């Protein structure tokens, strides 16, 4: 609507201002008594050499159209009131006809590659990996809604010197049966033991280095141990992905690039970017510490593998964008990575973007799955599902398939709690708070939507025609929110911010609940049909918002 009004104004101004410029100037008045949109004329005063008020008065006479009911001038502001029913008719029609396609864009033939989740083999799936998983998955869905093809890559941490340590630890203290039972916990235990022992036994570190070297050179025994650790860990990760409803197109992790790194080193050498430093090879960078490419013994590093991965993805997918959804603390790593790509002359470095995020906190402290006792994420998720089950027991004891709904609500609560915050913020993990059906929670959105479905069922609603014939004044906020959904999705994409959609869904749910509290829907009159059409449209957009965030929408709860 903003665009439409901007178009009308820019025409009235005889095109000395573009629609876009005008759109940027349009404001949403503080309260509805001042209209639905306001256009301040101050900025035009200079160009027109007239007083802003005079401009406003002249311009106001030229603003009219099907959706405009009234135009008032107040202190150099042009306040525009929409023809609410006419406007609502179009919006509701759009939503009801397009259903879950509403707010989307047609396929644009371009690709977005998203590197996310990326946990480390033989280590617990951390809260940071959970955040990456949830944010990355939402961004992939949002990209698809914007017309892109999304490729979801899990860049597993399955290579590096730590595997030398792990293999040595296994050879010293490993218990095959225990690992088969409980791979990550057991492997992590001996890995931690390795570190404790290595503090006063330097020989261990040396042995680990040699072991990794052997692994990189393809030693059969080492390789088969590594494969086993990887597969067993992956199985456990799969459980978490199943719970979260997240899937990947590729699990090519760091190890995948093992045979591709020599070309990177060669290319860096050819382009005269490598420099020796204490026997190691580094790339010097401006305003940043140098980036280590190979160690003294020739072993490669995390950064080397990321360089190989970026080149491979560029070749393989030709992505319009390459997103790395990785914690804040790796900012320098990605700055270095992109800077090296640029130095190598790759224009696609411009399309690479690190999407950072803050920490997960519990009682104000960093929530860790690393130190001390291993807290496995699957257990945390089970706890939230349990809490959701208890809530449902109180709210709706008669509900059928309680277990399935509790799953969707418990998991949805965790995802929403993460995504409702701007990603750079640290977020608090409070199971109690996130599973309540009120307040800024996922269950609140799910509950609102389920309520609408109950309402539609009670009213025996069927969609006869998709046009409204009547609109309650109290529903006007809802209509405006529904109309803004395509814009909301677009902004969420351009700012790589699922929070924009999460916050939007909260506004929409709140706005609907307010309307619902003050309106009798099921009156049996002809107005009932129109009210239910609005309710149905709200549920379509709530469900689609939840889907984009990676959250299920039970029809009953
Ligand atoms: N495995 C890494 C970690 O846990 C994250 C990898 C992120 N992706 C990447 N291409 N570097 O810290």
TrEMBL record:
A motif ('HIGH' region) lies at residues 119-129. It catalyses: tRNA(Arg) + L-arginine + ATP = L-arginyl-tRNA(Arg) + AMP + diphosphate. It comes from the Bacteria. Its EC number is 6.1.1.19. Residues 445-557 form the DALR anticodon binding domain. The keyword Protein transport does not apply. One of its GO terms (molecular function) is arginine-tRNA ligase activity. One of its GO terms (cellular component) is cytoplasm. InterPro entries: Arg-tRNA-ligase (IPR001278), Arg-tRNA-synth_N (IPR005148), Arg-tRNA-synth_N_sf (IPR036695), ArgRS_core (IPR035684), DALR_anticod-bd (IPR008909), Rossmann-like_a/b/a_fold (IPR014729), tRNAsynth_Ia_anticodon-bd (IPR009080). Belongs to the class-I aminoacyl-tRNA synthetase family. NCBIfam families: argS. PANTHER family: ARGININE--TRNA LIGASE, CYTOPLASMIC (PTHR11956:SF5), ARGINYL-TRNA SYNTHETASE (PTHR11956). Monomer. This is Arginine--tRNA ligase. It comes from Ureibacillus chungkukjangi. The lineage of its organism: Bacteria, Bacillati, Bacillota, Bacilli, Bacillales.
